[in-house]
Structure formats: C-alpha cells, structure tokens
Amino acid sequence: MARSPARETVFNDQPIESTATFPLHDTGAMSPCGMFTWSWMIVSVARRASIWLAIGAALTMGTAAAEKRNITEKDLFDFVWIGDPQVSPDGNRVAFVRVTVNDKKEGYDTSIWSIAVAGGEEPHRLTTGTHDTAPRWSPDGKYLAFLRSAEKDGKAEPPQLFMLPLTGGDAFGFTALPKGASAAVWSPDGKQIAFTSSANAEDLAKQEKKKRKEEELKKATAESADSTTVQTAPPSPSTKREDEGAHESDIHVITRAVYRSNDEGYVDPKRPQHIWLIQAPHTADEKILPKQLTDGRFDEAEPIWSADGTTIYFASLHVDEPYYELPKSELYSVAGTGGKPTKLTTVEMGIEGLSLSPDGKQMAFIASATQPVSSYTQPDLWTIELTPNAKPRNLTEKFDYDVGSGVFGDNAPPRGVGSNRPIWSADGKSILELCGKEGRTNLAKFDATTGAVSELTQGNQAVIRFGASPGDKRIIYLVSTPTRVGDLFTLDENGQPRQITDINHDLFSRLEVTEPEEIRYESFDGKRIQAWLQKPPGFDPHKKYPLILNIHGGPHAAYGYIFEHEFQWMAAKGYVVLFPNPRGSTTYGQEFGNVIQYHYPGDDFQDLMRGVDEVIRRGYIDEKKLGKLGGIRRISPCSSQTGSRRRPLIIPKTSEPARPSLILRM
After folding, report:
1. N or C: fewer beta carbons within 10 Å in the chain?
2. If pLDDT is split at 50, 70 and 90, which confidence band does 208 have?
3. pLDDT digits 0-9 by tens, 60-105
4. Biggest distance spanned by C-alpha atoms of the chain
5. Among the residues of 67-168, which ranges form H helices?
6. Considering only the top CATH level, what class is 138-205+253-348?
7. What is the residue-averaged pLDDT of the chain?
C-alpha cells in the first residue's frame, strides 16, 4: 500500500515492479523466497522436474525465513512509539507524534504523522523535523500548530511554535522566545493561540541586544567585503564587558529545598511559567509578536479558553514553597485582552487535566483528596462550578478504583507522550476518562451528575492516551498490551474497537513474544494477590526453569496488561518471570493501596514470598536458581527474613542490557 505524500519534504516509496507474483504460502510479510512469477511457468515440459525442485527449495527457504526469533535487548533500538494522538475537528484524521531511536542510538527523534481514522492507508509523515511534538488542530481543521526544537551545536534549543497549513505549503515558525513555548491552545474562533513560557523581560532584552549585534556584524562584514584590504580591529574593552555581561553563568545558588525536577533539571524560581497570547498566522510572511498576558512570581498552567473566547482560565498556586504544605491549587480567570487575573476559588488538592464543560459553567479534573492524610489516596474525577469560592464535588467517591491512571510499563513513549484530560460529551451529561482496575487500564464514561460508570473499552490492555473530536463524536485511544508496544484504536458505530495502526508490524512479525499467564493466590491473611508469569518461548512444563521475582517500586504503582520489554527479554533468555502486585499496589481500591501505611516494608513481603511458593508448587521451577530484582522493594533483606538457603541466581551480563537493574541475593 503506497504512502500518501508528506506535507514537507519526506520519503517516497520505491517504484514497484509490475511483474505479477503470487505467494506459495502466507508469511504475513512476504519474502522473495516465498513467491515465484508467472514467467517461470512458460517453460518446456522437459524442465518441469527442475521447476518443482526449485519450488520445493523455495518453500523450504520461505518457511525458514518466516520462523520467528526471540526478542533481544538490541530490538529496543528499532521500536516505534506513538505519542500525543489528536483527532481532527471533523473526526476523520488523527495526528500523532512518532518516536524512534536516532541513528547514533543516543537519543530520540520525534516527528508529526497522520492517518485516517477510517483506515485504508498507512500513516504518512507531516513534518520533517527530528524534534517535532505536540500537534494541535485549528478549530476549522485547516492548520496544525506544533512544537519544534532546533539543534545548535548538537543540543536541542527550547521548543518554538510552528504552523503547518494542511491545504498545502511548508511549515513555518512563529515564536522565537528565549526560553521557548508550550503546546498551542487555540481560541474557539481560531484567531489566537495561548501558550505558556518562562521567558522574562531580562531574557527578551538580552535576545534583542544579541540580535542587534548580529545585524551590525553582518552589515560590517558585507561592507568589508567591498574593500580589497580588510583591517580587523581588536575588540574594545567596552565590547568585551558587554560580551561578558551577556554570558549567563552556570552557577546555581540553591535557596529552596526543592531545586531540581525530573527531565527539567534545575528549577529556576526567577523564571515562572506565564501565559502568553499570539495571533494565529496563516502564512510565513505574517510577522507577529507574542504578548505576555500574565506576570508575577508564581507559575501558571493549563490555560483554557471560555466558549466565547473572551476569557482564559488557568491554575496556579500563590505559595512560594508549596512542598511544605498539603497539595492545593487555585483557579483563576483573566480577560483575553489582558488585565489583572481574578481568583475564583482554592481547591485543597493538586489538580490535573482541567476540562471545561460545553455550557462553560463547570470544570472537570482529576485529583486525590488530601484528608485524611494517607500514604496512598486513589485519584478521583471531580467537577467544580466556575463561581467564586465554589467547592469541588467528587463524582467517583463510590467508585473504588483509580480514575485517570492505571498500570505502568517500561515502554511508554519516551518523548512527545502528551497528556490526558477529561472529555465532556456534547450535551454535558457524561465525562470520558481512564480507570485502572485490577491490572488493566480502560476507558469509561462517568455520569456528570451521579458519577455512574459505563465501561467503553474492555480486555487485557492498558489505554495510555485518548482523545476525541468535539463533543466526543469520534474517540481514539492508544493501547498497549503485553505483546504490543502501542497502537491507535477507535470505537466504531457499535462501540466495538477497531485498530487504526500497526506501527511495529515489520519488527514484531519477526519476533517471538509471549502472553503472560495471570495467576491469583492467597496471602497469609486471606488477601488475594494478582500476579503474572512471563514464560520463555516454547515453554515446556515438564522442564525446569530459573525464576526471577520482579518487584515494582513506588510502592503505590501497578504491573499489569501492558508491554514490558524487560520481561519479554528475560523470558527469551530462558527465565520464568514472576511480577506480582502485592498490597500497596494501585488499581485494587483504596483499602488495598493504603493498607501498608506505617507498615512498609512488612506484610507486602509475605505477599511476594507466597507468590514465589505458588510458582514453585507448579513443578517447573529449579529451586536452586532463584533471583529477584526490581524497584524500591528490592532493598528488603529477603534472606534474613526467611532464613532461606536457596541458591542465589546469577544473571549473566549482556553487552547491552535492556535496562540497568540491581540483582540481590535471596
């Protein structure tokens, strides 16, 4: 199937020869050894014997080519991930971030691709950059705003906003802020774009000064090119002082307890995130400048336009060091024309995924209650009226599972993953969100008044990301399973799932990956523990295998039905991998998740050891070859607690391990 041409300069398929072929057997991905041409048949009867010998050889070679091999640690370099899927306003197409390992195998490339929701075509590339993320459709579907990070001296620059006209033309940039920009938030009429940036007045002044100096240097160079003899004067002392003043020191003076964050590096209190506005350009010729809408010393996040486009709502917290207090958030509104923001209310929780109702009167969001104080409090779906001093209402208080989160794996998109937020139905009567339930993550609709839940997707899977066209007329979602890294699905008119992409087909059609076996067993106090066994390809229950107990960290997290390259790789090496969800794990309700408060590590150890005993009882484990690894729980001294004399398992090193992990003795 030919790919559609890309909007920017992209790859074209190679010409296909017109010689008719037909397969000798169905291999899925056709090998030249598994087909012959009609021209072979135009031969004399005297050569039939040699032809059938050739066919027999082709069959043998084709079968050998179709045999699958075990997964390896190096296959990780060839994985393709899908991130941040966005449905077009008409519901006909999906734009997403395609993530791959770069050629040097030292980082990741990201680009924007698109595919028809109806199927019938392969995904095609929209952008040519290697650091393109965050696609956002304009309300009329004619433009796609996205983020692009250019490279300078081998390093990625702060991301800037770019625009791709979908009716034709090249992508062009329309911001150049020193500290970059966040994903675009289109106004309802498509005329403006809101975003956040940490650039401040000092940054802008330095940028402007640097730009003037570059222009002066360019002008001087052009003038000197007209002269036959160029005299190069040494820089004056004043020029040296200006250059030194423009240099930004890499020394960090730490004055706060929390000064670094994952992925972001050092936190800079002098550069809070503020909301900016810019007119949405239609061509590269439109020279427009963004304007800063909010200011002050506190971060602002999640800008959302009102339905009429006159107001922007956002979340903030005017506390200098909030980590000394229980989580809380503040909701504000500000006029789209500027002015002082108005504080609407304070929510005594950290909130995520603000989403405006169709009538513009409520917000939905995900949050965990802060009272009573617990080691673990499952997240719920909340709504709040957009009136002064309004209090939030917990829609899922009686739903004893996680809302907005679920199981985790080791192969979520490493870049450009995007985020989820609740999605309201067109009539405002229901809200679409994820729910994590007993090792699975699926989509559900929650009644916006009663909180009653209706499951939209089912099965042994993890829905990682989801999106919908306006009014949830077309729903798409990204699914991972134990044998699938991640692919896009949609729900048809009958509510049945239909696959849109098969992004890793070329690789996985050659790999032997196995489905884990789910087991449940009883712990010392009667609690039922859910766990899984990843077995080697070609598993024989009459043989003996070494066992690896893989323990998740957190401790409030959950294994489940999601792709785990590490487990597949270990099984391919000949190990049986046991990965349980002991008490303290999520997706089993509030009591199960919080029962380890003030008792950790403790009874969860018994859950783990009961699992080991359960697997050994099945008869195919070599009791002299047992080992464990994993997350935070791996530090527990298993040998001293049990007095076990079991022989420790020594896992052989590979040249390139799938993921560094600490192996401890049992």
Report:
1. N
2. confident
3. 444 444 689 999 999 999 999 999 999 999 999 999 999 999 999 9
4. 95
5. none
6. mainly beta
7. 85
Structure-token pair, residue 310: 């006159």
Determine contact, residues 458/54, Cβ cutoff 8 Å: no
Spell out the residues 6+ positions from residue 516 whose beta carbon is closer than 8 angstroms to its own: 482, 532, 533, 534, 535, 567, 579
CA neighbor of 327 nearest in space, from 259, 362, 374: 374
The conformational region for residue 142 under phi > 0 = left, psi -120 to 50 = alpha, else beta, is alpha
Confidence of residue 455 (pLDDT cuts 50, 70, 90): very high
| Peptide linkage before 358 cis (omega within 30 of 0) | no
Report the CATH superfamily, name and number, of domain 514-642. Alpha/Beta hydrolase fold, catalytic domain (3.40.50.1820)
Q: Among 106-120, 130-144, 258-272, name the one with the lowest average pLDDT.
A: 258-272
User: 221 pLDDT band (50/70/90 cuts)?
Assistant: confident
Site of tokens 């997350």: 631
Q: Are 607 and 542 in contact (CB under 8 A)?
A: no
Q: Where are the alpha helices (DSSP H) in 483-536?
A: 505-508
DSSP string, 472-496: GSSEEEEEEETTEEEEEEEE-TTS-
CA-based radius of gyration for the chain: 29
Tokens of 103: 């050629």
Cis peptide before 555 (omega within 30 of 0): yes
Domain segments of the chain as ranges:
21-70, 138-205+253-348, 514-642
User: pTM of the entire structure?
Assistant: 0.84
Encoded tokens for 394 = 């917990």
List the end-to-end C-alpha distance of the chain, in Å, as a whole number: 53
